[in-house]
Specification:
Layout: E1 2-3, E2 16-25, E3 29-38, E4 47-52, E5 59-60, E6 76-80, H1 89-99, E7 104-105, E8 112-113, E9 118-120, H2 135-143, E10 150-151, E11 161-162, E12 165-166, E13 168-175, E14 185-192, H3 211-217, H4 224-234, E15 244-251, H5 255-272, E16 284-293, H6 309-333, H7 343-346
Parallel strand pairs: 6-9, 15-16
Antiparallel strand pairs: 1-10, 2-3, 3-6, 4-16, 5-9, 7-8, 11-12, 13-14, 14-15
Length: 352
């Protein structure tokens, strides 16, 4: 497996950790769970929001995250395989958090209620139907959470498909160098499991792979026969899929502005996957803002407008970019599972 690298992962946002648990035991098991934990600092409470665009989502606690509702935070976010059955993994995460005293404080006796939203991918046909994540998967993923974590066919990406290729978990981040949002970090972790294709049939390269991505992954245009093979495989793609993920920033945003970041993430999803947000996808992106960096005003703003709108616009722009990069990372880092071939297996000449 490939380990995420500092300077290009969601955990570059302080207070964010990631853990995985999966089982890949062919032909029975090919599924798993990924947990993103978020910790506040002092009295600062992270804001958490969500935006759902796919027509077939499987989710838990997403209504709670509407900015008009009372609770505006979460203590962990669960991304998991197993379709709706996999939502049980969140129970295990709640148990771990409760044992640590992490959650909304309910009384003076130390009782808490952890807030653990979740989203699932449909990976049931990759292994056997009954082999799916449960509460133990969630607990093990939560226990293992740290700054360093693996990408590729791990965690919730163990049984993921990207069209007809092996999907997986990918990550990316950026520290905004200049402008009104200078110094703010934005990171993404995505589980790529789309109905649509992630590969341009004309070039044989990921749709969203820019020059930096090609250099980072050591990619070049594959041979003609390999491009034809990739196109041939795409015709065998399944039609029940989902791409889910988490965006994180250390900006001090409120809940409504954090939801704008989640919304912007879907622009990156649409750059990396074609088509995106189909009636058969459950595309869901969570966003969290830890509040560690208080952004400046970013210039004069007319009265009646959000005073940090210029900062928010820059964070949203970078949010779309890191989501697209994380999806590319997921596909390039994936390894074969069962009959699902990985991109690097089908197009080995693409690797320099």
């Amino acid at each position: 497996m490939i380990t995420s690298r500092a300077g290009n992962r969601i955990t570059d946002v302080g207070g964010v950790t990631v853990g995985h648990h999966h089982r890949i035991e062919e032909p029975q098991w090919a599924t798993g769970t990924t947990v993103v934990r978020v910790a506040g600092e002092g009295d600062r409470v992270p804001m958490v929001a969500v935006d759902v665009r796919g027509g077939g989502p499987g989710t838990r606690e997403t209504d709670l995250l509407d900015p008009s509702n009372t609770v505006q935070t979460a203590h962990a976010i669960v991304l998991t395989g197993g379709s709706a059955y996999g939502l049980a993994a969140a129970d295990g995460v709640m148990g771990v958090l409760e044992s640590e005293g992490v959650g909304l404080p309910m009384d003076e006796q130390g009782h808490v209620v952890p807030i653990v939203p979740a989203a699932v991918i449909f990976d049931l046909p990759v292994g056997e139907w009954h082999a799916r994540p449960d509460a133990e998967f969630g607990a093990r993923a939560a226990w293992s959470a740290g700054v360093d974590f693996e990408v590729g066919s791990v965690g919730a990406g163990a049984g993921a498909r990207a069209g007809a290729l092996k999907g997986g978990v990918g990550t990316a981040s950026v520290r905004i160098p200049d402008g009104p949002a200078a110094g703010i970090t934005v990171g993404a972790l995505m589980v790529a499991n789309p109905v649509g294709t992630v590969i341009d049939p004309d070039t044989g390269l990921p749709w969203a792979a820019g020059k930096d991505d090609l250099e980072r992954h050591g990619l070049r245009t594959p041979s003609g026969p390999e491009i034809a093979r990739l196109a041939e495989l795409q015709e065998k793609a399944k039609v029940l899929n989902t791409t889910i993920g988490v965006l994180a920033t250390d900006a001090a945003f409120d809940a409504a502005m954090t939801r704008r970041v989640a919304m912007a993430g879907h622009d990156g999803l649409a750059r990396a996957i074609r088509p995106a947000h189909s009636p058969l996808d459950g595309d869901t992106i969570f966003a969290l803002a830890t509040g560690a960096v208080a952004p400046g005003a970013g210039g004069p703003i007319p009265p009646g407008m959000y005073p940090q709108v210029a900062v928010l616009a820059e964070v949203c722009r970078h949010a779309a970019h890191v989501v697209a990069r994380a999806i590319v990372d997921a596909v390039i880092s994936a390894t074969p599972v069962g009959e699902l071939a990985a991109y690097t297996q089908v197009a080995p000449s693409a690797l320099r």
